[in-house]
Design a protein that fits this description.
five-stranded antiparallel sheet; four-stranded antiparallel sheet; 13 strands; about 15% helix; about 20% strand
């Protein structure tokens, strides 16, 4: 291997390949230089694939991982013991860094990117508004197409009805299922949401709401502040703007998934209202 050029202004230099090709991180041999204060220093170029570096610029955890990989490989090659206190230099004060290139095997350049972004579940936004006997909770599911056309699957002897996906609440955790009466077994399905609909669950408790829609949505939020604590003026529930004023009765809840409006609607009564209704029923 020819000696390394003394300046980072040179380009097209040979490199030592990483023993682990998964990260595609070739490393150049050391070169001597000076830091901003004019003190002598040792410089190593750790070269990573551009698509990996672009993601690291937005992801602090990935950036720390790349730095750690670079330090470990330098330690393995030189026998140095490097500290992990990282200082970010003022690059602009030294002027633009001339571009550098490295010769790498052709099969690395031809292989597709091994870095893939995996989208995790999103916390949907929700809100509530008062009704006569309780409240109406709305969970926004904006990833659903707003103009999805329902497909009507009509069984023999049945008649089609309003193509809305109605959900009953069963003992939780419950699945959000189409409401099909035995007398009317027609099934309405939205092609873009059917799989998501079938894997969705809604768990509604007196002081807590849990909603999961496959790998796309995940919401777990208290509906009220923790018991025994005073509400904080700026405290907010997960995914919402404000807590409910009092507890709700989970058994009175009725849920409806509306793909057209891209939301889930939950109508529910206050626990105190349900208790009064039970008292009246006992008196009668």
């Amino acid at each position: 291997m020819p000696p390394s050029p003394p300046s980072h202004g040179h380009s097209a230099v040979p490199v030592e390949l990483s023993p682990d090709p998964v990260t595609r991180a070739p490393r150049r041999e050391r070169r001597d230089g000076t830091d901003k204060a004019g003190q002598p220093c040792i410089i190593f170029d750790a070269i990573f694939n551009p698509d990996l570096c672009a993601k690291a610029a937005k992801d602090a955890e990935l950036r720390r991982t790349i730095i750690e990989i670079s330090l470990v490989r330098i330690e393995q090659a030189t026998g140095f013991k490097l500290g992990r206190t990282i200082a970010t230099p003022n690059i602009k004060s030294k002027g633009p860094i001339p571009p550098r290139t490295a010769r790498i095997p052709a099969f690395w350049a031809s292989r597709p990117s091994l870095v893939q972004e995996v989208n995790g579940p999103v916390t949907p936004m929700w809100s509530w508004s008062p009704t006569r006997d309780g409240c109406r909770i709305v969970i926004k599911v904006p990833d659903l197409p707003p103009r999805s056309t329902p497909v009507v699957v009509q069984l023999p002897g049945s008649a089609p009805t309003n193509p809305k996906l109605q959900m009953r609440r069963l003992p939780h955790p419950t699945r959000l299922l189409p409401q099909n009466e035995p007398s009317n077994p027609s099934h309405f399905a939205y092609p873009s949401t059917r799989a998501l609909h079938e894997t969705s669950t809604l768990d509604l408790e007196a002081r807590r709401l849990i909603f999961s829609a496959g790998p796309r949505y995940q919401l777990d939020t208290p509906l009220l502040p923790p018991a025994g604590t005073k509400p904080v003026s700026d405290a907010k529930p997960v995914g919402g703007d404000k807590f409910l004023p009092t507890t709700v009765d989970p058994d009175s809840a009725i849920a409806e998934w509306s793909p057209k409006d891209q939301e889930i609607l939950i109508s529910i009564k206050w626990a105190s209202v349900v208790e009064r209704e039970r008292e009246k029923a006992r008196v009668v």
